[in-house]
Amino acid sequence: MSGRFAPRSRRETRAVVLESLLRSGGAFRPLIARDAQLTEASISRILTELRGEDIIEEIRRPAPYVGGPTALVTLSKNIAIAGIELSNDRLSFGIGDLAGTIDYVERMPASPQLKQSEFERLFGNCLATMTQWTGKRGISIRQAALSIPGYSSANTNPIFTWDMKRLRAFLAEVLEGVPLSITNSVIAQAAFHRYSSTAAYPIEGDHLFLFVGHGVAGVVVNETAPIDTFSPFELGHMVIERNGHACRCGHKGCLEAYTSLKAVSKIIGIAESEVLHQGDGFIEALDLGDDIRTSLRERLFLLGLGLGNALNLHPVSSVVISGWPSLMPVGDRDAILEGLDESLLGGFDQDRLKLSFIAPSIGNDPQAALYYAAYCFVRGGGLEAKAEPQAALGENA
Amino acid sequence: MSGRFAPRSRRETRAVVLESLLRSGGAFRPLIARDAQLTEASISRILTELRGEDIIEEIRRPAPYVGGPTALVTLSKNIAIAGIELSNDRLSFGIGDLAGTIDYVERMPASPQLKQSEFERLFGNCLATMTQWTGKRGISIRQAALSIPGYSSANTNPIFTWDMKRLRAFLAEVLEGVPLSITNSVIAQAAFHRYSSTAAYPIEGDHLFLFVGHGVAGVVVNETAPIDTFSPFELGHMVIERNGHACRCGHKGCLEAYTSLKAVSKIIGIAESEVLHQGDGFIEALDLGDDIRTSLRERLFLLGLGLGNALNLHPVSSVVISGWPSLMPVGDRDAILEGLDESLLGGFDQDRLKLSFIAPSIGNDPQAALYYAAYCFVRGGGLEAKAEPQAALGENA
DNA sequence: CACAATAATTACACAGTGTAAATATCATGG
DNA sequence: CCATGATATTTACACTGTGTAATTATTGTG
């Protein structure tokens, strides 16, 4: 009489169990059983299997009540994964384990106008250094993930207009068989913030995660859907003001032309790279002049306007915002609400829309990509890509 | 060595087989086997089961080649389903079978400003008449579907601002156990046009289906996802012109204020209800004056602008448009492209975005809802809601 | 009317998981 | 220190769903 209705392949079951562990950061069996909707019997079988493959560990830790479980199940620290992040000003490589530890990081400056060939060269160099590091230690990477701003499985990227087929071919070649997932930065960010056990998150339930940085991008976090199926919402090039400011995309009046990091850093008079590297309240601490504050509020208003338009298209009842707006004083953020009030159907109403802010985690790259790599490893059940006996043709479903 | 990788419950397998039949309108076994990714052996078992329950029929029809299949499998004509459609000017009830035949229709005028209590009264009356009809014939409805403009599982409806919980409670009560699915009209429309075997459809693959009527709504048709998970895109209340025309929603400059049926019928000088009831090319035939044509082109431009914004948010490579724009002369429709060119990232490019038009199927209500009811019946495997032995709690996954 | 070609059915094996019985572990109290 | 109660963990067995392969059916052709 379990709560499930669809049988699962072994791979799926392993994936469900491992994903539960990734989210919780470690749990006792009864909890895993509930989370994965399996009986203790099945948990027992699966864990035995996973322990044998050194994917999980059971550390002796008796629960503090009579008859309680005796061992805490955690993801193994012996599986190496790699996260690669192309943020707008640098390319970072990292190696870590499933438990969230990062053992190796290398970061190289990368221009926001990076050409594909330059990227390939840069990537090749970093990879070589990394391979040296792993080689020396006899480590083999089980899963890698690369996050790119604007990436989508469709061939359209507003930020890097590269040939995705060529990109995938290049990566497949240089990575020599290491499984690689490519994803949109905003998905990796959202997943990391929402599901990594190390971070606090302001809300639960489906919502829009919005990141305002070089671009303006969001993703609808659907709590019941797998992260790798999330589809990004590229808000930056919504035209919110006909014949408005010129945008780098060639159009006029795009949201990005008003609210990107570049646009606001110009207003503040501080280098882009400086703004996000500061902590929460940084802008408040700056004690900006009144006209600067007013300008920023105008930009936040426009952000709200565009956000409202996006929410009209695809309604959700809460939004989490990360990026420079999160660094603004609470009072100033209200300008977003005013913008929302002009576009969101029915006007802004705090009973119908909950807005939260989280500090941007800049400087932690490639933490999000690393998390995403762990997620992908776990989603595959910790099995090689084609290890499933019945799976021959069917990756396309 | 099949192409599948996930085991299925009996319910799922039945659903897959039945859905294949619904889409094809009838097929020989080898085709079903390929479509459902099952062996002939499994098809045999499933069909035997379904035939026993009178959900499918096998009519003797030898394929015209040696050793070919001998019977054509079709959905049974003995399963009664009901489709209920609330278009903006009427409420229509229909009863039909899985093969697409419609046996009963009743239509009642309904104001676009219909209040919830009025709806309940109207619905009650129509239902009573329908129940009389079914009662007289000893027919019992296996699945009903109701399509409402603007409906979403969230509690926000731009068109009818009703209490959805109350609506569901009301419907559950009056329908006395008949399973009911509620969906957004645009989903039912899209599904009907795309998948019903009776209609031709201009494209294949993922795309945006856009309907421009009283409102402006779309849905991303994801060919690999189940229809009932499609999420509607309510385009109508995107603010495309700050401080523009007043919209009925209270905001200014919404797309709907420019491109809804109401807005354009005012330009043409013909009652709303007349416009869509005409066939393709109707507007061309009208021989409108030059300034009217110009105005309409302006509206199409704005539609393109809003559409471009939506596509920036969620890129797809083709769009199918239904509604009054489909009735416009081909040359005039190009105004949409001009609008797209100003908002769609990278400008409009026919290699990257394919635009198609299909005639709006007004006057066929509740055909789309009826199709959706058939879809829901089939998706449930033709089983009672809770018949699955292992399924007790788990409808929420 | 036998044959070739494919369709349709059926016996059997195997994967995955639940049930329930058997066994293990721990805190507590004598 | 040991029996006890409480819960955890493992294991034997049964059941579902499906593929494989052998068997039987159907049909056009020569």
UniProtKB/TrEMBL annotation, chains A, B:
<dbReference type="InterPro" id="IPR043129">
    <property type="entry name" value="ATPase_NBD"/>
</dbReference>
<dbReference type="Pfam" id="PF00480">
    <property type="entry name" value="ROK"/>
</dbReference>
<protein>
    <submittedName>
        <fullName>ROK family protein</fullName>
    </submittedName>
</protein>
<dbReference type="InterPro" id="IPR000600">
    <property type="entry name" value="ROK"/>
</dbReference>
<comment type="similarity">
    <text>Belongs to the ROK (NagC/XylR) family.</text>
</comment>
<dbReference type="InterPro" id="IPR036390">
    <property type="entry name" value="WH_DNA-bd_sf"/>
</dbReference>
<dbReference type="InterPro" id="IPR036388">
    <property type="entry name" value="WH-like_DNA-bd_sf"/>
</dbReference>
